[in-house]
């Protein structure tokens, strides 16, 4: 646990970069610092590894004041990733990654072997080990930056806008891989960004800083969206906060309907009266949408409109399901299980009926995560026109 106790940083010119900040960053979790430019996020991050010394207050790691540790020794237990990766241009990728192991006097073979393993972990082909940073794309360089920070397996990682300098597609990939990695490694991470979407996607807790170094709110992202502390936070979160909140609503309790699901062997006449039906194969894999009124004979031979987006029932959020419903010609979201088989469909109204008020905090979600995944019941009725029909 990293604890800020009344931390203030006032520079000699009178600038208050941090104003009496108290906050806890729990062990094994991602705490994101977000807020306006100049809000003190970077300054706060740097007080943890003593790159900045507070004017007042203290920063503790597991109860111990960081000022009682020598900076060099302290920093060996703290990985640090910055924007543009900050790689040494004249060192190969493997030697960049092995920077801290070399400082720790590991032998070269062991350090390089560890570097290669880390390259795979962060999604880099180890054949790039002998390249130099300029021979890598921006996204690849950021991966090297993350690998370098992880090299000595530090329990804490400080990340200052690590994914800001790459395009949105690469950025989303880096974020997804970062979350996958964290699910394995459980580091204590403090992550600075000015992007509220990134904060909400990555943070277990999100701390919002306002100009003048004032910490305005610290909460789980779903609570931040549901209950912004003041106008500033509400404005910072933006106008889509209702839709974003649906990103935390679960599809696990949703009762899906089988009414519009038909086997390919079913006859169009069996579906008379329905505008659109979802045609599935023998394994309940979706084949496409058909309009029974325009067809005669087996639905497998109908003109099918591709299903496009689906949602993983019980795993994806209501936001993902709603997106699938909006994009579907039938206005119905198709729920599938982990094998891709159709579990049932849900309309926009069904999805919006999922309770979103008072969304459970991460702590509650965590205890649930220890239980088997909550998969919605498959609708009872057998597929119409299915085998044996
Ligand atoms: N060495 C310094 N001397 C004087 N003022 C400083 C110094 N370093 C930072 N500041 C000021 O402290 C305030 C907080 O800066 P900081 O870099 O922590 O903000 P930030 O929230 O990380 O901003 P950004 O998102 O723009 O990076 C700013 O007003 C900045 O100008």
UniProtKB/TrEMBL annotation:
UniProt-listed PROSITE patterns: ABC_TRANSPORTER_1, ABC_TRANSPORTER_2
SMART domains, sorted: AAA (SM00382)
Keywords recorded for this protein, A-Z: ATP-binding, Nucleotide-binding, Transport
EC number: 7.6.2.9
Region feature Disordered, mapped onto this chain: 363-389
Regions of compositional bias (Low complexity) in chain numbering: 363-373
Occurrences of domain ABC transporter (ranges): 2-237
Group of enzyme by EC: translocase
GO molecular function, one term: ATP hydrolysis activity
Any Pfam family: ABC_tran
Highest taxon listed in the record's lineage: Bacteria
Protein family per UniProt: Belongs to the ABC transporter superfamily.
Record-given protein name: ABC-type quaternary amine transporter
């Amino acid at each position: 646990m990293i604890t800020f106790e009344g931390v203030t940083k006032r520079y000699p010119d009178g600038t208050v970069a941090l104003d009496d900040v108290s906050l806890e960053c729990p062990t094994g979790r991602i705490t994101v610092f977000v807020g306006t430019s100049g809000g003190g996020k970077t300054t706060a991050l740097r007080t943890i590894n003593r790159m900045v010394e507070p004017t007042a207050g203290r920063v503790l790691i597991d109860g111990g004041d960081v000022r009682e540790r020598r900076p060099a020794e302290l920093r060996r237990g703290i990985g640090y990733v910055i924007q543009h990766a900050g790689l040494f241009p004249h060192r190969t990728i493997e030697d960049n990654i092995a920077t801290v192991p070399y400082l720790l006097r590991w032998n070269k073979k062991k350090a390089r072997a560890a570097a290669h393993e880390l390259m795979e972990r962060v999604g880099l082909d180890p054949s790039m080990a002998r390249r130099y940073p300029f021979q890598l794309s921006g996204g690849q360089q950021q991966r090297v930056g993350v690998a370098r920070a992880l090299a000595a397996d530090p329990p804490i990682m400080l990340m200052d806008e690590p994914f800001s300098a790459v395009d949105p597609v690469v950025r989303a990939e880096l974020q997804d891989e970062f979350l996958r990695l964290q699910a394995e490694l459980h580091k204590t991470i403090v992550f600075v960004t000015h992007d509220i979407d990134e904060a909400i996607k990555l943070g277990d807790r999100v701390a919002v800083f306002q100009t003048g170094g004032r910490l305005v709110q610290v909460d789980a992202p779903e609570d931040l969206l549901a209950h912004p502390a003041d106008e500033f936070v509400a404005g910072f979160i933006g106008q889509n906060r209702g839709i974003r909140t649906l990103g935390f609503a679960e599809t696990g309790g949703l009762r899906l309907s089988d009414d519009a699901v038909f086997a390919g062997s079913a006859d169009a006449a069996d579906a008379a009266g329905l505008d659109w039906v979802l045609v599935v194969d023998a394994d309940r894999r979706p084949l496409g949408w058909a309009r029974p009124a325009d067809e005669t004979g087996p639905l497998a031979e109908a003109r099918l409109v591709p299903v496009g987006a689906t949602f993983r029932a019980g795993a994806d959020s209501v936001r993902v399901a709603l997106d699938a419903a909006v994009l579907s010609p039938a206005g119905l979201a198709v729920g599938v299980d982990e094998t891709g088989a159709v579990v049932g469909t849900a309309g926009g109204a069904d999805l919006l009926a999922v309770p979103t008020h008072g969304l459970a905090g991460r702590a509650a979600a965590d205890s649930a995560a220890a239980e088997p995944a909550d998969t919605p019941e498959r609708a009872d009725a057998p597929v119409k026109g299915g085998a044996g029909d």
